[in-house]
Amino acid sequence: MVEEAGPGGGAPRTAAAPPSRGPARPIDEIPAETAQARPTGVDELDRVLGGGLVPGAVVLLAGEPGVGKSTLLLDVAARAARGGRRVLYVTGEESTAQVRLRAGRIRALDPALLLADETDLASVLGHVEQSDPDLLVLDSVQTIASAQVEGSAGGVAQVREVSSALIQAAKSRDMPVVLVGHVTKDGSVAGPRTLEHLVDVVCQFEGDRHSRLRLLRATKNRYGPTDEVGCFDLSESGIVGLPDPSGLFVSQALHAVPGTCLTVTLEGRRPLAVEVQALVAPSAAPNPRRTTSGVDSARLAMVLAVLQRRLGARLADQDVYVSTVGGARVVEPAGDLALALAAIGSREDVALPRGLVALGEVGLAGEIRAVPGIGRRLAEAARLGFRRALVPASSVDDLVPPEGVHVLGATDLAHAVQLVMTAASPAQPAPVA
């Protein structure tokens, strides 16, 4: 028989101890200079991080395999080394020779960039003690394991132990740490959810395997905004930032083509001009095809249903193919109007006026609803040379359009088609070979 104390009885399990970092101080006496962000040298990354890397911050960069995470961080590490900082790059997925070949290809060689291949947590911490770096890059957190914890690398217990040890090292040394993380099938960060709570910044690196465009988003940021997006161009010679990516998403057609319409989407706070292309062709199949690329298939089905029901456009026996230019994605409702105009223009074989941009959400009753950020969208369209804008009529009264942009307000989809078709031109016949 062993007597045990009940709830609330006995001595406390944790006794008070002297503060490890000194007594508590008034908040206005704590210096804030040590928490200032330092630029990385990559403007698009600094935009997403809120100015750069904060000393002692832990950043988790997640993305699908082959999207360019290692290439981006190797470039960031080399730029930091050239700026006079000692950088330790630890790779657990590749050998040092493989990383050296990539660094030579993207011109990321510098004597201040130290490279090590380790999969043991104690060895990684030993490299940190020995080299005392100003920046630590770990690729990736799922490949490192601790001998003190049971389970294989990448397990819940191992990832929690590795991340906790590295976060403690980062805070005690005021050393920024960048961790590369794997993702699951649905695109979420692999491992325990605790990992995202422990780190300071969580970034997602996105991109289509068949496109060179890469987008960097911050889903959590203790030091900056989470509505900024960084754009990168990934090629064989490395990865570079794209301060003006809108030109990639607009075709360079020399003449007006039926079935094309331009819209402006908002990626965070960043406006991006995107061209939507539609092709409507007769179908002999009992179930016509609806194929999309870069456009939400559910929104396409809704817009086609509104066109057929409210405007009487015959689309039930037509194949409809919709795509965006340059691998861009249009997922917000603001692109509904451009999608509808592109489809109806292809159906009637009429080219929309050149220099026209369409903004608005289409409702099931056919009405054109207002969308946020119309001023920023029109400013981006004006910068690219577009001089006509079709917007919801409810947004015209409070809108101050950019200089040289003529704004038209549409109340519903039928009104929008009428305004556009009056200035449209029939398609030019194709040249005969």
TrEMBL record:
Feature: compositional bias, Gly residues: 1-11
Domain called RecA family profile: residue spans: 34-183
Keywords: ATP-binding, DNA damage, DNA repair, DNA-binding, Hydrolase, Metal-binding, Nucleotide-binding, Stress response, Zinc, Zinc-finger
Motif (RadA KNRFG motif): 220-224
Record's signal peptide: none
GO biological process: recombinational repair
Pfam entry (one): AAA_25
Region (Lon-protease-like) location: 319-433
Residue numbers binding ATP: 63-70
Cross-referenced InterPro entries: AAA+_ATPase, DNA_repair_RadA, P-loop_NTPase, RecA_ATP-bd, Ribosomal_Su5_D2-typ_SF, Ribsml_uS5_D2-typ_fold_subgr
Region (Disordered): 1-27
Keyword DNA damage belongs to the record: yes
Superkingdom classification of source: Bacteria
Biased composition (Low complexity): 12-25
GO cellular component: cytosol
Molecular function, one GO term: damaged DNA binding
Family to which the UniProt record says this protein belongs: Belongs to the RecA family. RadA subfamily.
Protein function: DNA-dependent ATPase involved in processing of recombination intermediates, plays a role in repairing DNA breaks. Stimulates the branch migration of RecA-mediated strand transfer reactions, allowing the 3' invading strand to extend heteroduplex DNA faster. Binds ssDNA in the presence of ADP but not other nucleotides, has ATPase activity that is stimulated by ssDNA and various branched DNA structures, but inhibited by SSB. Does not have RecA's homology-searching function. Plays a role in repairing double-strand DNA breaks, probably involving stabilizing or processing branched DNA or blocked replication forks.
PANTHER family: DNA REPAIR PROTEIN RADA, DNA REPAIR PROTEIN RADA-LIKE PROTEIN
Domain-level remarks: The middle region has homology to RecA with ATPase motifs including the RadA KNRFG motif, while the C-terminus is homologous to Lon protease.
Stated name of the protein: DNA repair protein RadA
Organism: Cellulomonas uda
Organism lineage: Bacteria, Bacillati, Actinomycetota, Actinomycetes, Micrococcales
